[in-house]
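Consider the tokenized backbone below.
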């Protein structure tokens, strides 16, 4: 624990950017659920079985088998984390001038698409951009938007449709099985691939089990497998669902794409049987994937997120609804209505929450959205602060502390002023940007 004076100093040194705080200065760390979950006893035991051969490690073959058994994808290439897979996939599939439709952007995913010469187009339903709308599947694709894009540019210009499960930037919102099937039918009609961002697929499966007709008796494992079956390949950051501190993979069904990706991975990550990971990391990932589709685990994990969200609602704090899978997303536009988007309401709120109690959260608004290829700022409709919950780490008492601290900040919201950016890196600026209070 730190004092207010210590936190004030730490914030100033970090340029009011929570990414630049030292973890030692943080009391409850809700920056991300990525690589921050606790590994199980079984995963740690697996770490001791690392086969650290340069080529053909036994752990690689175990992981490959698990990806086939649990997700159903035929070919898998390990990568150091999700963006490693995105880089290779984008380089293999995207040509200059291509269009990649997707159910809302994700920062690293869109940047890799752009660096490969493509342009991302948002085809998520409008409800996803409205924090108040309680539609149960705000990750759904607007099929008319997708078909209009295909007609406008032609199927040849669209290498794949990018479908995320548990749409991160929308607030951890699920896509329904019905909508995914419809996207499959439409893309089949035009001969277009679907690439699945499966980073939080098990969390999406939980919402399908809870909310979609015909799925209440099905296991998380069977729902996950059905989701994957409607897609042609996937990028995975195993640091979320799969409960490891590092790791990811690219999976595809198509042999030609696999062959090219397998060749590409040796340039950027490492040999195709380790992709930047130690054998022990692949073993922990293989075991973590199995744990991630356990019904009791997912119910407890999302149950904790819902517990926090309901507390915040009770305190009348404006949050994205319905409550999502991996965290609570506070609506900074509503929380600080007097601060214009150019003065970074979400960045400001994240700093204020840290100052109050040492809780570290993450801006997911205009700073995260960054600039277009032509240099103009993106102005996202959603200006959010994400309170992300690591898996198997915190207790219910921590959730109470978080809600109470946010309430204290909410009570003094009228006195909070915005900020200006004083340092802006070229790529993914949110990681290292610095700010000054107005
Ligand atoms: C999260 C992260 C980690 C992160 C990434 C960028 C900015 C801030 C934090 C990573 C994801 C993700 C989805 C849906 C791909 C990646 C990249 N999320 N897709 O939410 O959520 O994976 O970090 O392993 O490279 O904090 P990677």
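A designed sequence for it:
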């Amino acid at each position: 624990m730190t004092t207010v004076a210590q936190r004030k100093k730490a914030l100033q040194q970090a340029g009011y950017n929570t990414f630049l705080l030292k973890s030692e200065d943080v009391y409850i760390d809700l920056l991300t659920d990525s690589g921050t979950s606790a590994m199980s006893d079984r995963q740690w035991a697996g770490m001791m079985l690392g086969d650290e051969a340069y080529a053909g490690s036994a752990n690689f073959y175990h992981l490959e088998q698990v990806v086939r058994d649990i997700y159903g994808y035929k070919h898998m290439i390990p990568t150091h984390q999700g963006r490693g897979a995105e880089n290779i996939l984008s380089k293999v599939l995207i040509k200059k001038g291509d269009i990649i439709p997707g159910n809302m952007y994700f920062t690293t995913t869109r940047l890799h698409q752009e660096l490969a010469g493509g342009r991302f187009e948002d085809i998520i339903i409008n409800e996803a951009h409205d924090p108040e709308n309680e539609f149960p599947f705000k990750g759904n694709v607007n099929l008319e938007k997708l078909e209009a894009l295909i007609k406008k540019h032609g199927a040849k210009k669209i290498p794949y449709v990018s479908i995320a499960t548990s749409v991160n930037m929308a607030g951890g919102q699920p896509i329904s099985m019905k909508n995914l099937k419809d996207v499959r039918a439409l893309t089949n009609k035009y001969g277009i691939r679907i690439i699945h961002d499966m980073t939080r697929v098990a969390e999406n499966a939980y919402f399908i089990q809870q909310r979609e007709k015909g799925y209440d008796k099905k296991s998380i494992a069977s729902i996950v497998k059905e989701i994957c079956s409607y897609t042609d390949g996937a990028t995975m950051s195993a640091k979320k669902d799969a409960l490891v501190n590092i790791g990811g993979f690219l999976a595809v069904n198509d042999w030609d794409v696999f062959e090219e990706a397998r060749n590409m991975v040796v340039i950027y990550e490492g040999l195709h049987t380790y992709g930047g990971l130690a054998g022990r990391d692949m073993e922990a990932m293989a075991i973590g994937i199995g744990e991630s589709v356990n019904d009791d685990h997912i119910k407890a994990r999302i149950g904790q997120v819902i517990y926090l969200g309901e507390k915040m609602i009770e305190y009348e704090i404006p949050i994205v609804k319905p409550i999502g899978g991996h965290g609570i997303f506070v609506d900074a536009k509503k929380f600080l209505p007097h601060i214009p988007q150019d003065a970074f309401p979400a960045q400001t709120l994240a700093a204020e929450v840290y100052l109050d109690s040492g809780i570290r959260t993450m801006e997911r608004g205009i700073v995260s959205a960054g600039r277009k290829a032509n240099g103009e700022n993106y102005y996202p409709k959603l200006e959010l602060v994400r309170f992300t919950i690591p898996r198997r780490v915190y207790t219910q008492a921590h959730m109470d502390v978080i809600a109470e601290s946010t309430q204290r900040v909410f009570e003094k919201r009228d006195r909070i002023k915005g900020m200006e950016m004083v340092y802006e890196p070229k790529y993914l600026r949110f990681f290292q940007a610095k700010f000054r209070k107005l």
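The two ends are 28 Å apart (CA to CA).
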